[in-house]
Design goal:
By secondary structure, the protein is mainly α. The protein has two domains: 200 residues, Alpha-lytic protease prodomain-like (Up-down Bundle); 70 residues, Cation efflux protein, cytoplasmic domain (Alpha-Beta Plaits, 2-Layer Sandwich). Helices cover 62% and strands 10% of the residues. It is built from eight helices and three strands. Strands 1-2-3 form a three-stranded mixed β-sheet. Helix 2 runs parallel beside helix 6. The two termini are 21 Å apart. Belongs to the cation diffusion facilitator (CDF) transporter (TC 2.A.4) family. SLC30A subfamily.
Length: 302
């Protein structure tokens, strides 16, 4: 029996860019408050929809910050053998619920407003939308470098990119209302933003469910991994292969490797770990090596 561990980093790669996340979070939170206050005073559903999107993004950014902080703390209980890396996954689940709730509320309000509602003021939409676009562009510049190194930061970068799209929608709504005098453009743009947010919530929700359900990592085919392991010199069979994602960027594997009688287990472990890391991005693998004559180990059915 042998074990080979490619240890995941003690801290998310995003921890090096924590100050960028913090600065972005502060700007987005300030923009959220501005949009919320302006939306209520200007009676704009489009701006309220984008403010709701901002609220979900604040939660996502805070989750990224909390994730990097918690992940850096050592477990003193001795019970969390994988650490607390999944804190960001649970926080992402909360963000999904917020995004869905915002989308449904905006849809309800859009239907409720059919037939008359307070006049929407176009000027605040254009001004606040422009401010939001500037804030989002600055935030994207802050997070761009970190997005190349960390999935955590990349997720925050994509959130800000989506915010920029929402800001453009708010500006378009303000311009259309100013040009046509038709307030229903506000509801149309609001519904468009709500649908955009809902689609993103569903996609993010699928990722959360996949991680919590311990599905194979996205882009990693278990059969390809089994075939690649089985093709290494000295390995006769592979069974009890399990692949899952601990948290963003941390993929884990376990497997039993059956080897020939005169095969070096040390060489097999080194080659298997190197292959899993280079070909599949799996840096933490627990591998059990069994000689071909060993018959007591039975492949599990789960």
């Amino acid at each position: 029996m042998g074990h080979n561990h490619g240890h995941a980093p003690a801290v998310h790669a995003g921890a090096r860019h924590r100050w960028r996340l913090l600065a972005t979070c502060a700007m987005v939170m300030a923009l959220f408050l501005l949009e919320l206050i302006t939306a209520l005073s200007a009676h704009s559903l489009a701006l309220l929809s984008d403010a709701g999107h901002m609220a979900a993004d604040v939660i996502t950014l805070v989750a990224a910050l909390i994730g990097t902080t918690i992940a850096a703390r050592p477990d003193r209980s001795g019970r969390r053998t994988y650490g607390s890396y999944r804190a960001e996954v649970f926080a992402s689940g909360v963000a999904v619920l917020v995004m869905v709730a915002v989308s449904l509320y905006v849809g309800y309000e859009a239907i409720h407003r059919i037939g008359g509602h307070p006049a929407t003021h176009s000027e605040p939409l254009i001004v606040v939308g422009a401010i939001g676009l500037v804030v989002n562009v600055v935030s994207m510049m802050l997070l761009r470098d970190g997005a190349q190194e960390s999935l955590n930061v990349k997720g925050a970068y994509l959130e800000v990119l989506a915010d920029a799209v929402g800001s453009v929608g708010v500006i378009v709504a303000g311009i259309l209302i100013a040009l046509t005098g038709l307030d229903w453009w506000d509801s149309v743009i609001a519904v468009a933003i709500a649908i955009f947010v809902l689609v993103r919530a569903v996609l993010l929700g699928r990722e959360v469910v996949a991680v919590l359900g311990q599905h194979a990592p996205d882009g990693v085919d278990p059969e390809q991994v089994r075939s690649a392991l089985g093709g290494l010199p000295g390995i006769r069979r592979v069974h009890d292969l399990h692949l899952w994602t601990l948290t963003s960027g941390m993929n884990v594997a376990t497997a039993h490797l059956v080897i020939g009688e005169h095969t070096s287990s040390h060489d097999v472990l080194d080659q298997a770990q190197a292959m899993l890391t280079s070909q599949f991005g799996i840096e933490h693998a627990t591998l059990q090596v069994e000689p071909e004559s060993h018959t007591q180990c039975q492949s599990l059915q789960w």
